Amino acid sequence: MPGCDVYDIDRDARTYAGPLPVVAHPPCRAWGRLRAFAKPREDEKALAFFAIDAVRQFGGVLEHPAQSSLWPAAGLPLPGKGFDQFGGFTFCLDQHWLGHRARKRTWLYVVGVSPSMLPAFRLRIDQPSHVIATSRKKNRNAYPECSKAEREHTPAEMAAWLVSVAASCAVDRRVAA
Fold it and tell me: Beta strands 89-94 and 60-65: pairing type?
């Protein structure tokens, strides 16, 4: 994305030393509902804790699937349950609201901006055209299933909104004497 300094597996996000707010999406397969079937790299779970530390230190937003087991493991506040000692809060959004073709609930942990100051986005109430995974019981209307790539990628509209969230974050960096 234009204007973003992107760290990925090749650049190694663990080398980021600030000072700008971050948008973090550490690998989620070790933390998601299907984690029992996942085969994460050995160091993958630790990336989530690095991402949390970066969001707390520099401000920004961490994105993970709703119900991620990272929240209880890291002591992050659950959606609607107030703020942690870093001023961080969590809320849930549906990626369909921001361009995904399927309903895909996501938890966002945010530090550096109050909930009332989050950038606005268009709330969609229409029915998604696709599903994440087919289930005979849940997919009675036979909606098409998203591709693996589409399940894993963040929609462009959501990515732009996440960048605007990070840009609005300001963490107090005064050093205690």
Answer: unpaired
